TrEMBL record:
InterPro entries: Prepilin_IV_endopep_pep (IPR000045), Prepilin_pept_A24_N (IPR010627), Prepilin_peptidase/N-MTase (IPR050882)
Major subcellular site: membrane
UniProt name for this protein: Type 4 prepilin peptidase 1 Aspartic peptidase. MEROPS family A24A
Family indicated by similarity: Belongs to the peptidase A24 family.
GO cellular component: plasma membrane
Biological source species: Lentibacillus persicus
BP GO annotations: signal peptide processing
GO MF, one example: aspartic-type endopeptidase activity
Amino acid sequence: MTPHLTLTLLFFLLGLVFGSFFNVVGLRAPQKLPFTADRSICPHCKNQLSWCELIPLLSFIFQSGKCRHCQHGISIMYPAIELITGLLFAFAYIKLGLQIELIAALLLIALLVIVFVSDMRYMLIPNNVLLFFFPLFILIRIVSPLTPWWSPIMGALTGGAIIVIIILASRGGMGGGDMKLFVIIGIVLGLDNTLLTLLLASVFGMVVGVVLLSLKIINRKQPVPFGPYIAAAAIVAYFYGEPIVAWYFNFLS
Ligand SMILES: [Zn+2]
């Protein structure tokens, strides 16, 4: 195997393992539970899981998606999050190679996967997670700045301000967690791509909303978490923001 292929595979495996950890963080952080102290248990029969039941992806496949003790189905969310994290880690390495910006990309993926899990499950974005990542991203943008250098500052201010306006105008729908998340996205992505994230998140939310409504999976009154759309939009904007923005202005002119 070439070194490039070996490293791609390594980042994929790293992503699988971290994805399994982000599942735990996303499910435990909102309840303020420690991430490491107690071993994982089956949420149904409360049996402690052994190491062979905690192998990312493989345990799920070999146990055919069922708990070994009580045969209760395991949520597809666990292997799906592991696989997505693995693919995103490998993709980030392929796109960026070994440079400081790769750390920014991996941290961004980490934050967004955790936000995705928490918001899907509890409809909230845990403050302690946002506070953990906030200083890391400021540090990253000092070491690996964007051009122009003030773009992250403007991105954070504009992103946060727009969400505050949406919160005030809509009375619900979005919350303080979404606002703080957009401040962080502003720092990592800069002004243009933060605005693009807002736009894409609304489009994703609308498309998925219409599909879920027409399939009668949700009803009109049901509140839906916005975090998963923000997470997906921020990933697309981070990796493909420049070509999308360029295409958009070409399209307009
Ligand atoms: Zn069980």
